[in-house]
Design goal:
Blueprint lengths: L1 H14 L2 H12 L4 E5 L2 E6 L2 E5 L11 H11 L12 E5 L7 H7 L4 E5 L3 H10 L5 E4 L2 E2 L4 E6 L17 E7 L11 E4 L5 H6 L2 H4 L4
Parallel strand pairs: 4-5, 4-10, 5-6, 7-9
Antiparallel strand pairs: 1-2, 2-3, 8-9
Helix pairs in contact: 1-2, 3-4
Amino acid sequence: LYIILGVVISFCHNNTSRKTFTRLVNLLLRKKSKLNYENGMYYVSDNSGKFYFPNKRVVRMLIGIVEKSKNLFDSYCLDKITFLRNDKVIDCGANTGELYPYLKKVVPELEYLAFEPDQKVYNCLLKNVNDEKATLRSDALSNKSGMTKFYNATYGADSSLEYSGKKSYTKVKTIQLDDLELTNIKLLKMDAEGHELEVLQGALKTLSQIM
């Protein structure tokens, strides 16, 4: 039965889109979380609210928005860190902000600074993280400031400043983290798709401020 269901879901994933896709997934999976489509974005809704994606990767949130966020939190081994009220977290490569829902539960009055240069993904991030203590930026972190090519691979969440065979690109603004002169940082989380070394090179002063 599960094999048949998997084949049917795979067919729907590959051959339907938008509201047709969401209706079929909701019908077949019968989850408490519901999948929807509006204004060019997919979103999952449950008792914690809504969470938006630019594409069908949204199905990963059907287990529950906060539960999926906790899974990601644990996969980064962040459960080993003792967080305190008002801690400052920098999220480099925040994507749609999947880490945020559970992180916000763990850290009261969280000060959150997120970077996501993929514009389609950033638009979803803006909807997913709505807090006066959160700062969201579409700059790309690197070891120099300026404009450079950003290779688009939105569907697989693999967009990067590093060329990996994807010919499609846009131009994005890059900055060094040191330019922001940040202090009292609890966590710098990075997912820069191969550009992590350059991010660190541009953050040598900032690293000394991570407690």
